[in-house]
Amino acid sequence: MAERNISFTAHQTKTSQPEGFLLRHQWTILPIALAILDGLTVFGVLNLAFNIRFKLNLPIFRTEVMDSPAYYLNLECAMVIAVLVMFLLAGLYNISNLLAGMREYSLVFNCVVILVVLILVVSFLIPAFVISRGWLVMAWLFTFLGVDIERFIFRRFIHQIRKKGYFVKRTIIIGANEESRYLAGQIQDTPRSGMMIIGFMEEGIPAGNKIYERYVSLGNLSQLDNIIEKYHIEEIILTTSALSQDQIISIFRRYGVSKKVTLRLTSGLYEVITTGVQVREMAGVHC
After folding, report:
1. Which of 9, 53, 60, 192 could form a disulfide with 135 if both were Cys (CB 3.0 to 4.6 A apart)?
2. What separation in angstroms does the CA of 63 have from each of 50, 55, 60, 72, 74?
3. For residues 236 and 266, is the Cβ–Cβ distance under 8 A?
4. d(Cα 131, Cα 282) in Å, to the nearest integer?
């Protein structure tokens, strides 16, 4: 009976996700698409700043500054490249910094501020490098707001297509108690979390036994490597209140720095591991 239950769950999991080129390469396509959108957005807002500064002839701006379209076009292209490089170095194309929380927006702000400061330093050191201060202020403001709005819309788009099975990570929860069941319920009710629960793992609970709603036990911890390989697991959530410190440390040593699997811990483990762990909110729960 247990074998039939777990087989049914595996079949249900496999068919709940779409198949095709996008699914196979989705995590490669996502940062590339975002970089293209960032580049187009930055170029667009810099052009907007140029048109406002030099085409509208607003009385608040000085008229005796260089307004060569070719000069500013070259400058805008250079700034687009600089922004994309800075975003890359800041981790703004790293999946762990995208699609959730405020860190993404704060990194955008920091990068844009650094870029403007660098431009001011260059203009001070190289007298021949002349730019309109009004244009630069608008470029800073429009770039920050434009990229944040673009990324906010992009995030909403990803949240919508996650309901169809795209851009979700196959996840197992290790440990079965009230906390883990609550967490599974939160993730299940929050498609934007980006996680798809495959099942639970718990010592002493045979594979196939129901743990929470349609989710069953996949086996015990000694089978963890096989389970990860069999179900193509991308995320592991450790329910710290359901596991011993030795179990947590053992799993952390094996997967804490893995490039294939992301290890997340529910809150409450600071007495065991105090460094090297990022705390993020997933489906309303800090992991």
Report:
1. 53
2. 13, 11, 9, 16, 21
3. no
4. 44
- Per-residue tokens: 160: 């919508």
| Tokens 């804490």 -> residue | 256
- As given in the structure block, the two tokens for residue 107 are 């990194």
Give exposure, 41-59, as e/b (b: 16+ Cβ within 10 Å). Answer: bbbbbbeebbeebbeeeee
Residues 6+ apart with CB under 8 A from 205: 176, 211, 217, 220
> Cβ(286)–Cβ(264) under 8 Å?
no
Dihedral, 75, 77, 78, 82 alpha carbons, nearest 10: 130
Consecutive 10-residue averages of pLDDT for the chain (287 residues): 40 50 82 96 95 78 68 91 96 88 92 93 86 88 96 92 85 90 85 85 87 88 90 90 87 84 71 45 49
Q: Which of 273, 97, 286 is nearest to 182 (CA)?
A: 286
What is the residue whose two structure tokens read 């991308």?
234
Q: Report the chain's terminal Cα–Cα distance, integer Å.
A: 34
41/36 Cα distance (integer angstroms): 9
Q: How far is CA 126 from CA 66, 113, 119, 122, in A?
A: 16, 20, 10, 6
For the chain, state the CA radius of gyration. 24
